[in-house]
Amino acid sequence: MKRYLSIGVLIGLAVISLNGHADEKAKPNAWQGKTGEDVYNTVCFACHKEGVADAPKLGDKAAWADLIEEGQAVLTAHAWVGVRAMPAKGGQPDMPLEAFADAVAWMASNSGGDWKTPDDTLLAVIREEAIQRIGVQVTEMQEMQQELHKLTQEHLENRLQNMEQQLRTLTTATEKPAEKANKK
């Protein structure tokens, strides 16, 4: 019985998933047909025009030099998944990689680089680099989680020791008056 139930649940989830994907494909993508410059003017300018949170300003060749040196795939992938103060996908959860990558290429090309809109081959390399970057981020988050668990455990142990000490102090204070009363 349980076997049939789990198969039924899996089939149900698959149908829901397929329906969800069908709905996504039916929705028009707001980024479709936008150039890298369009994406910059829609989203990226908010930080890259004035250098908010140390974002390299568009056209600042010195600020972009080291980033451009990293290479188009690495820079695009790291920015895509979020790096330093920059949120993943520039804070636009619905932005496809193609539009994002085109915007990065446009900004780099207008800041000292010679980058072109990525073709399918470069997009595949960017995706692989993004996967690796996410793996690093997951490992870092797991290490932070372990550290937090350790700190929480230490904190709880310290609290428990303090409470035990307070209980001993209260018990000792309560016993002394009782002892004095018994001696009389």
From TrEMBL:
Coiled coil: 134-173
Keyword tags: Coiled coil, Electron transport, Heme, Iron, Metal-binding, Signal, Transport
Pfam families reported for this sequence: Cytochrome_CBB3
A molecular-function term among this protein's GO annotations: iron ion binding
Keyword DNA repair (UniProt): no
Superkingdom classification of source: Bacteria
Cytochrome c domain mapped to chain residues: 31-111
Entry keyword annotation includes Transit peptide: no
PROSITE patterns, per the entry: CYTC (PS51007)
Signal peptide: 1-22
Protein name, entry field: Cytochrome c5
Species, as recorded: Thiothrix caldifontis
